[in-house]
Amino acid sequence: MSTLTLSSDLMKSFKPCKAFTGYCQEDKDITALSFDDTGSTCVTASSDDTIHLFDTKLGKHQKYFRSGKYGVDLPCFTHSSSTIIYASTKQDNSIKYHSLHDNSYLQYYRGHQGKVNSLEMSPTDDMFLSASSDDTVRLWDLRTPQCQGLLHIKGNSIAAWDPSGLCFAVSLYSESMILLYDKGRYDQAPFATFALRDRDHRGRDIRPHPTCIKFSSNGNYILVGTNSPYHYILDSFSGQIYYRLTGHETFTSVNIQRDMLSWSPDGKFVVGGSKNGKIHVWEVPPTEPRDAAIKTLSPIHTTDNHKNTPSKIVAFNPRVVMLATAASSELAFWLPMQDSRRSSHN
Fold first, then answer.
1. Do residues 326 and 313 lie in contact, with contact meaning Cβ atoms separated by under 8 Å?
2. Which residues contact residue 127 at a Cβ distance below 8 angstroms, ignoring those fewer than 6 apart?
3. N or C: less crowded end of the chain, CB within 10 Å?
């Protein structure tokens, strides 16, 4: 795999070099994926209650586990490549701490009374965040089953850490807002509140509903995916909307699409999926606009790969120049300037 510096030409050259089919039932979907800290392993969750591990360096499937009793969604590596956390989809809404080494549960984290919408490890320690449709956001520590912090947030919220691990963002779907909290003062009011406000092509005021939020690697920007025709890039300090991203066919569902967008590791590009299966690349200008007007960014590149199947999952490898996408039951690894090869599981 390459460690080249990203450029617009390089981003335009990305092609699927490996496609995995047959690792999920054809009538089921891959629902989420995650890379470990080293970028060498990718984990996926599917609606057929399976967890699959893939070696990103060799482009090979490694092993799988079944969670038939509890179901599985939102798998997320801890800071060890041998353990993950994930959300249950059956029986209860607990979060599981799972050893991939011996397929055992290390801990259960109970408290959510509704579907878990987002699950994310702190980038710096063993804390993690979960947000749920039960109108709560919870702060946890891997080392204890007791919830370390509880926020009552009305609406279909999601949560994301900033890269310093010192604060986190929470979205309010119905209110079209982003709230910022200090990790050390989570029980207090948010220290910043940003409203999403824009105008459509007819000049009418719109309030886009956030379905995905992610900080850039330097913490200066917040990427907000919505179920409107636009996605947005905000200044993470002032909340000013700098850019609206256009050109994709939006997912109009109210369901959370946590992985519909991904920053490149250097924060210079955004890659996103689309309802029609296309993968889009947007280039983020190196300097912010000098005026308050929202600038529109169109894709610098669009590619067909998933054959009109909604590409709901897009994730950049955190360490090398590699991209993973998923649509329905297919997982694809992308590299710059590579020939396509397809791998099927029998």
1. yes
2. 121, 139, 140, 141, 142, 148, 165, 183
3. C
CATH of the domain at 216: 2.130.10.10
155: CB partners within 8 A, 6+ apart? 135, 172, 173, 174, 175
CA distance 291 to 275: 33
Report yes or no on 327 lying in a domain. Answer: yes
In a domain, 308, yes or no: yes
Burial (CB count within 10 angstroms: exposed 0-12, middle 13-18, buried 19+), residue 76? buried
Report if residue 153 sits inside a domain.
no
277-334 per-position pLDDT tens digit: 899 999 999 988 888 889 999 999 998 777 778 888 999 999 989 999 999 999 999 9
Identify the residue whose tokens are 């220290």.
Answer: 191
Cβ(136)–Cβ(129) under 8 Å?
no
Q: pTM for the whole thing?
A: 0.92
Dist. CA 288–CA 132, nearest whole Å: 34
Does 271 reside within a domain? yes
- Rounded distance, CA 197 to CA 212, Å? 16
Of 149, 118, 112, 119, the residue nearest 134 (C-alpha): 112
Q: Check pLDDT > 80 for residue 255.
A: no
CA distance 144 to 15: 43
Question: Domain range spanning residue 317?
Answer: 1-22+209-346
Q: Is the pLDDT of residue 341 over 50?
A: no
Starting from the edge strand earliest in sequence, which strands make up the sheet with 261-263, in order?
261-263, 269-272, 279-283, 301-303
Q: What is the rounded CA–CA span in Å between residue 147 and residue 228?
A: 34
The number of folded domains in the chain is 1
10-23 average pLDDT score: 92
- pLDDT for residue 218: 94
- Find all residues with CB under 8 Å of 97, minimum gap 6, and list them: 78, 83, 84, 85, 105, 106, 107, 108, 109, 142
